[in-house]
Amino acid sequence: MQAPDGSRASPAPARSGSSLIVTLVAATFFMENLDGTIIATALPQMARSFNVHPADMSLGITAYLLTLAVFIPISGWAADRFGLRTVFGSAIAVFTAASVLCATTSTLPAFAAARVLQGIGGAMMVPVGRLAVLRATPKDGLMRAIAIITWPGLVAPVIGPPLGGFITTYSSWRWIFYLNLPLGCIGLALALRHLDNARENANRRFDLPGFALCGVSCTTILYAMELVGRNDTPWALVSGLVAVGAVTGFVAWLHVRRVKDPVVDLSALKVKTFAVAMGGGSLFRISISAVPFLLPLMFQIGFGMNAFESGLLTLAVFAGNLSMKLVTTPVMRRFGFRSVLIVNGALAAVSLAAMSLLSPATPKTIIVVVLFLSGLARSLQFTALNTLSFADVPKAQMSGASALSSTLFQMTMGIGVAVGAIALRLAQWLHGHGSESGAHAMTPADFSVAFVIVAAIGLVGIADLFGLARDAGAVVSGHRHRKR
C-alpha cells in the first residue's frame, strides 16, 4: 500500500501492537503533564538555589505552559511532513534532554530557557502521540484507548504537587527532572521500534503567518489572564494584551479559513460531535482545571493545614479518577454519550459546588468523600468528551483535529488556573478585602465563592450538549438507542 508521498506505508498494527502504542503514549503524556505541575511545591527550594524571590519562579511554570500553547498547532504539520515516528521520537528526545538541562541549571534565566525547550518537546509529544493512537486503534477500541491516554491529564495535576513536595523534602528538586531521563530513554526506544512512519500529506506547506498569528494570540491571552489573577494587576498592560490577543486571534481565524494548508485545520469543526466537544467541553475543562489550583490553597491557607496534609487529601480526587476507569466503558455502552455527558456534567458541577460548603470544622471523612465523588465525575466527563471528539472525525482529518484539540486543551488548562485565581480575587472583592495583598488576606469564605463561580462555568458548558443526537458516537460507545 502506497503512502501519500509515494513511500510504502506500514500495515495497520495488530491489537497487541495498538495496546503497546496506547500504553507508550499514556506514559509520555503522564511525563509531560506531570512536569507542568510537579515543581509547584519545589519553588521555594529552587528559588534559594537560584538566589531569587520565590514569586519570580512563576517564570518557570509560565514559560513552559506558554511554549506548549504556541507550538502545539504546528504538530499536525510536522507529523504529516516528517512522519509519526520521526516527530514523536524526536519530541521524546528533546523533552528528555531539556529535562536534564533543567536539573543542571544554576540561574533562573537558564532554567526558563531550558523550560522553553522542554515545552517544545512536550508540544510535539501530546498531539502527535494522540494521533498515533487514533490511527492505530480501530473504532470499536477507541473508547478504551482514549480512557487510557486521558488519565495522565487527570492524575498528573493532582499527584504532581505532593510528589514534588516529597522529592524536594527528602532529596533535591533537581531529581524532579532527572527522573525523566530513564523514562524518556525507554519511551524513545519503544517509539522507534513499534511506531510506523506513515505520512498523510508530506507535501503540505508550512503556514508561517498562521503560526505567528496563533502564537501571539495564545500567548497574550494566557499571559493577560495570569496577570488578572495577581494582587498587583497592571490593568493597562492587561488591556493591551487582551486587545492584541483578540485582534490577532480574529485575523488568525480569517487566515486559516482562507489558506489551503492552515497551521490549524478548522474543518473538523463541521463534525457535530467534535464541535460540541470543543465548545461546551472546553468550559468544563476550564472549571475542572481550576480545582488543582484552588484545593491546595484552600486547605493550606483557608484551613491552616500543612503541605503534607493538603497533598494527602487531594489524593482522594486521584482515587476517584482511577475508580471510575473500571466502569467507564460499561456506563458509556449502557447510556450513550449524550445522556452521560449531560447528567454527569451536572453532577460534576454539583460536586464542585459542594466544595464551597467545606470548612475548617468539616470532618476529614466528609472532605474525602466529596473529593472522591468529584474525582469520579470529572474522570467520566473527561473520558467521554475526549472520546466523543474523534468518534466521527474521518481519518483524513485526524491530524488537524488532533492538533486543534490539543491546542484548545492546553489553552483551557492554562485558562482554568487563571480563572481560579480570578475567582479568588472576585471573592475577596465581594467580601470587602480585595485591596489587601498577600495570601493571608484569603479566608475560607473566599474559597467558597470561588468554587461556586467555577461550578457555574462548568454548568454553562452543559447547554451545548443538548444539541447532540441521542445516538451520537454510537459506533464508538456501542450504545444502541431504542426508539419508542
TrEMBL record:
InterPro entries: MFS (IPR011701), MFS_dom (IPR020846), MFS_trans_sf (IPR036259)
Location of the protein in the cell: Membrane
SUPFAM superfamilies, sorted: MFS general substrate transporter (SSF103473)
Membrane topology according to the record: Multi-pass membrane protein
GO molecular function annotation: transmembrane transporter activity
Pfam families on file: MFS_1
Major facilitator superfamily (MFS) profile domain ranges (all copies): 21-473
Listed GO CC annotations: plasma membrane
Keywords: Membrane, Transmembrane, Transmembrane helix
Tagged with keyword Aminoacyl-tRNA synthetase: no
Membrane-spanning intervals of the chain: 20-41, 61-79, 86-106, 112-133, 145-163, 175-194, 206-223, 235-254, 274-295, 301-323, 335-359, 365-388, 408-427, 447-469
UniProt-recorded name of the protein: EmrB/QacA family drug resistance transporter
